[in-house]
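ping. complex inputs:
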Amino acid sequence: MNALDGILFGFSVAFEWRNLLACFIGVLIGTVVGVLPGIGPVGAMALLLPATYALTPAGALIMLAGIYYGSMYGGSTTAILLKVPGEVSSVVTTLDGYEMAQRGRAGPALFVAAIGSFVAGTVGVVGLAFIGPLLSKVALTFGPPEYCALCLLGLMVLSRLTDSSLSRAFVMVAAGLALSTVGMEPMSGTSRFTFGFLKMSQGIDLVPIAMGMFGVAELLSMAERELKTQAPIRVRLRELLPTKEDWQRSWPPITRGSIMGFLFGLVPGPTAMIATFTSYALERKLSRHPEQFGKGAIEGVAGPEAANNGAAQGAFIPLLTLGIPFAPASAMLLTALLIHGVQTGPLMMVNNPEVFWGVVSSMYVGNFMLLVLNLPLIGVFVSLLRLPMYLIASVVALLCLVGTYAISNSMLDIWVLLISGVAAYLLRKLRFEPAILVLALALGPILERSFLQSLYLVQGEWMEIFQRPITAGMIITGLVVLAAPALLRQFRGSAAG
Amino acid sequence: MQFCRLLKLVSLCALALGFAASAVAQSYPSRPVTMVVPYAPGGGADIIARLLADAMKPHLGQPVIVTNRPGGQGTIGTADVIQAKPDGYTIALSAVATLTVQPHRQDLPYNTPDDYEPIIKAANLPIMFSVHAKTPWTTMKEAFDFIRANPGKIRVGSPGNGSMGHLTLATLNSKAGTRFAHVPYLSGAESIPSMLGGHVEALVVHPPEILPHTAAGTARVLATFEEKRNPSYPDAPTFRELGYDVTLGVYYPLIGPKGLPKDIRDKLYQAAKAALADPTFSAGVKSRGFVLDTKEPEAFRQELWASYRANAEILKELGLGKK
Amino acid sequence: MNSRTAGLAAAVLFLVIGSGQIYMSLALPRGTLAEPGPGVFPLLVGALMSASSIACLVLAIVERTPLEFGLLKDAARPAVLVVALAAFLVLLPRVGFILPSLLLQVVTLQVFGMRGVWRRLAVAAVITAAAVLLFETLLGVQFPAPTWSF
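pong. complex structure:
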């Protein structure tokens, strides 16, 4: 079956009324889960998995997949409005999205985020259908050494994320990595740095740190500012839509972000997150107004949001074509397939074409539903900002606390939330960027695991790691990223002199 | 006739006892039961837990909700359940290595099989030796010949340090005098793509994970660590047939916290037993490579003790125990 | 504390953390290069932390640009907020969700300038009720059962 026949066949599956309903329920739940911080898509999928037993395998997967990519849409909402990123992939969106909201431009930020997500989703689906099966093997070329190099590249890009000095950035990178080593070492199961707390052997969960370092820290900064300047942000209705200039500035980042996100998504692992901050760093580099980044540049919202959704769609390729899950969310989908008796793996496309093509086509339908669902909601969300400051602040405080507690009913998590909030409040004042710490913390476990596995793999001959073409390429790219500003200065200096 | 009367009497007594027992435990279960899977979704334990939870529901009269709490080779979620309130609403579907290998490797809130209440043995899962289809070895003998000539040149991925797969490989190395290099992954699911991409040459792996790839012709199973040949791979000999007495496998215990009342444990046992006997359930799990092997709680505790002692020996011999 | 001292103090603090991690990692098994142990990665991270904090230290001495706003310029309100949040955390496992939530709301509303005790109390009650409805009833979050013990 070629791709066009496949997609048409897929639409005939996706438009069956029960599957259409399953898709709608999926994206609706996904939107809600995405908007509420703390409760992630994986938890929601696990909760709803038994409810899909009554559906066909295709229907079940359509609904669960809807929850997953639906939550990617909603994830940016609280990040933009309240500076509370519900998941790692929306950490980058807080950098400029929240700043835009502070300047009364929450409407355009949310609008561009939604459009960016839709475009990336569409690019992703088309890519999935036409070149997905061809590209499925790409995922397999990534062994532990390649992951290790990818994480190192990620850290080098990360250290150039904002304009804080390189040494401060690396302190934050190291701090994030150090926090990631708390708890059980993945390979041997040895407990480290737990200071006698049994709960700490689980490691430090990312979401409490992210919500603390952004949500709680911002609350403290708001409390510090003069109250007189805390008048509610004025939002006029005609400012809800992006201006012509906004569009012109958003299209290129959305296009680049979509393609980059999709390509990153093919390579499994922590790629959605790496895609977001790489897109941010790239747009900052390409922009004619790099000084606006961090102060409400619309490109800083458009690019990363598109990249995030593109990666979410790309991640379906290894799952659907090889039966291999690389992220908790796709592992959940794999479980659903197995429970419904679908033999996953390379033969699924042949044996269960209704599942493969049905899901691919339903993702297109679902993306459209999400756009229709989300655009009218923007007005509602933005009008929330017109509430008095004290109301917003107390709701944010409670949302951070309860949202964090809800992840795993853990008191330790909310203590982590508070401590990291205070820490980030102080770090900000000292010009350390907490976003770098949070993202490094997210990369840490994968870096450590792939680093140790690589050493096992090459039997201690560590030079071999760098002799593999992909790893060498990535490390060199990373070094160029690190050295670029210094080299440019040198170049300009000698040109001037 | 005397015998008939005796039979009636006995059955009457049994009935009365049954009533009494059910009166005591009548309140249980009055709300859904949580089944913790201390591993990530998509692996063997997760699949059997979800199938079992669904099949137990009609027999228990309450839904069984599966939650994944992965980390630390399963010890974190398992320890959580063992320390939970023994009211029967929190149970775990753990695995043999988590319960009988990890306590020998580190200090945990639990140690021996007396520290928790075994409910039922859910299933066995065999371990097999598989290679990438592009490797030159078509029989285990060829692989042995190669590794003897080139020690360390076949890298074998396992589901993790201290997993049964790791122990199996290490035992094979020690009994056959070979040096297969060991590369630990976090789970079986994580090791598969690494072999398919050619980063390791071979895997010690479970059937549900490798079946799709042998079916697609991208991997081969050379031999199995079972007592008998596996019905899915009739051409793959056992290691015992090859002359190396290495017979190890994985099994999945359903356990409850220490101090779980007997009547509640028996209710869970009966529900799980009925679920395991359900023909659709058993057909489903068998097609995925599991081997059903139901054991009642106390006999099962003995089997866990046997594994606990045997694994202590293996770890000591291999130098993998507590430092 | 002026901003330069603050920068120096932060760099020294990070240096202490970095060397602390190096020290603690040395106690962990490091294995061999072919079979690395759990101490290897933390050791490298500790080294990175120490090296970059030394660079920060140099920077703090050399750098002339002051930090954007003085450390703890107006610390009273944030401090009250932190205490209220901490009180919420201490009380939650002991007396359940409702009381700590009311308390936190009342304090937060005051910190952010809402006037009138009764109005604050009323708004706090509404927000708490909404949180219970949303999280406990609809999303099934189980708040800790009160133990009433300290």
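Residues 3-496 of chain A form one domain.
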